[in-house]
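Listing S7. Sequence submitted for prediction.
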Amino acid sequence: MKTSDCDILIVPGYTNSGEDHWQSRWERQLSTAWRVEQENWDAPNRDAWVERIVRDVQRAEKPVVLVGHSLGVLAVAHAAPQLAGGKARGAFLVSVPDVERPDFIPAIDRAFAPIPREPFPFPSVLVASRTDPHCDYAKAEDIAYAWGAAIVDAGDAGHINTESGHGPWPEGLMRFAGFLKRL
């Protein structure tokens, strides 16, 4: 599949993805990419976020590939059962957060936990860092296996966001292109 063959839905996480974040850059670069907007990025509500993803997938005109980061990854995971047999053809997921940790960000809706463990109804890949402050690599790997996702070890990459030096993130874009080719 090429980018022109699908609608690429960008699913940011908590507080959205800023101007220099790789998701925002991809949205500007890829002509078929658009952002799943949320009513409240700073006080995320699981049900509202899932509903918005499902609605945006349904209104897409082409097959859909979801691109989630951080809490957006979990929103995709919670939405996945409602996307079975539909337009969603794949998910490229980066930096899953461990919302099951007791010390996780208090503003995050506790309904994001537990992390879903059912296999996704479409192919997926999860890119995880060995130094992500929001999730241990072993936990990310376990989650990927439960979802049936291919795991990509990003090494010492932090949370794979602007703060960790991943504004443009060309390696991620190449990995995404490789994922699309297999769909």
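Caption to Listing S7: primary sequence and predicted structure tokens for the chain studied. Helices lie at 22-29, 46-59, 71-79, 137-147, 170-181. DSSP finds five helices and six strands in the chain.
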